[in-house]
Structures are given as structure tokens and as C-alpha cells.
Design a protein that fits this description.
The two termini are 26 Å apart. The protein has an eight-stranded mixed β-sheet with strand order 1-2-3-4-5-6-8-7, sandwiched between helices. The chain has a single domain, classed as 3-Layer(aba) Sandwich (Aminopeptidase). The longest helix has 17 residues. Strand 5, helix 4 and strand 6 form a beta-alpha-beta unit. The model has no long low-confidence stretch (mean pLDDT 95). The protein is an alpha+beta fold and 186 residues long.
């Protein structure tokens, strides 16, 4: 996977493993904490730049092992979110895209562009299937794969436990196949 991907308005860049990057990312997480907590369980345990640095160290190791690829999303050199190709099954040519965006930047198409850039990179690296999972109650997040032509395959009932909501939550499963890209262009 490329370490730098240029889009029309944004840049995706491999995350640097340093304290400055950790502080930058943590600032956005902390600022958006209330909006993120219902959907992103890891936010509860991200309470300092040191916690974010630990994530960056794991992310750097995962990149080297080709087990996942996390990118910072940058708009005019400003960090606005994160997107990753995660839970990669190279032997099955399948992976998942996970994402979050600074709430000050939602609704402008930046995440749509980021997802398109990552899916293009995955398909060019011989992946056949990309999956996106969203909580069924996270309507905003589920709009993205729908708008990008992902197929809603169904709902995984009580698939995750939300400590924040103190209940089991259902998850949407969306997928896109490489053949859809080819047929969409015909």
C-alpha cells in the first residue's frame, strides 16, 4: 500500500509514530469525544497523547507486518481524521475499511473521498472484497457506504457490546466487490 495517497481535496498519509502526531490526533479525539463515544469503544480508553502514541506504535508495527494500514486524513496540511484498511485477510483477498472524522469537517464529502481512495488502493493491491461495518443506530456513518455503491448484506444481530449504551448493538454489514468497480465503469 502506498504511504501517501493524493486526492482531489485531501491527502491520506501513513501515520508517523511520534509524540507530535500523537498530540495532534489526541486533540481531535478529545474535542470530539462526546460524539465519538456511542460508536467508537476505544475512545473511552484514549485519555492522553501517550495513549494515542501507543496506538501509533501498534499501527506502525501493523503497517510493517502488512496486517493493517492506517492513514491520517489531511486537508490543507491539517489533520481531520483517520481511515484504515483493517482486518485484512490477504489469503482471501478481503479487507475492511474503518474511519472517523473530526466532527467540524463532516458533511463536506471528505470521508467519501477518503473511502474512495482507500478502496481504489485495495483493489489495485489485488483485493476482491471490501467490507464496512456500522452500528445500525449510526445513521450518518451508514450513509457513506450506501452512497458509494456498497451492498447492504444484512444486519449482524447483537454483534457488539456497547459499554457506553450498556447493551448489545446490531451492526450493518456493507460490501463492495472488485467486479462492481469494473461493471460500474462499463
Amino acid at each position: 500500500m502506498k504511504e501517501l495517497i493524493n486526492g482531489k481535496r485531501i491527502i491520506l498519509q501513513r501515520l508517523s509514530c511520534d509524540m507530535e502526531t500523537a498530540r495532534t490526533i489526541f486533540f481531535v479525539i478529545d474535542k470530539c469525544r462526546e460524539e465519538f463515544l456511542p460508536w467508537l469503544a476505544w475512545v473511552k480508553n484514549t485519555n492522553s497523547a501517550m495513549d494515542t502514541l501507543k496506538f501509533l506504535e501498534l499501527s506502525d508495527n501493523d503497517w510493517k507486518n502488512k496486517s493493517q494500514f492506517n492513514y491520517g486524513i489531511y486537508l490543507e496540511n491539517k489533520f481531520i481524521g483517520l481511515i484504515g484498511a483493517v482486518r485484512l485477510a490477504w489469503e482471501h483477498k478481503r479487507g475492511e475499511i474503518g474511519y472517523w472524522l473530526d466532527t467540524d469537517y463532516t458533511g463536506n464529502g471528505y470521508m467519501t473521498e477518503a473511502i474512495q481512495l482507500v478502496e481504489k488502493e485495495l483493489f489495485e493491491n489485488a483485493f476482491n472484497r471490501i467490507e464496512i461495518y456500522t452500528d445500525v443506530l449510526n445513521i450518518k456513518s451508514a450513509k457513506l457506504p450506501r452512497a458509494l455503491g456498497y451492498t447492504h448484506e444484512g444486519i449482524l444481530r447483537q454483534h457488539t457490546y456497547s459499554e457506553f449504551n450498556q447493551c448489545f448493538c446490531d451492526q450493518n454489514v456493507f460490501s463492495k466487490l472488485k467486479s462492481q468497480i469494473i461493471s460500474d465503469k462499463l
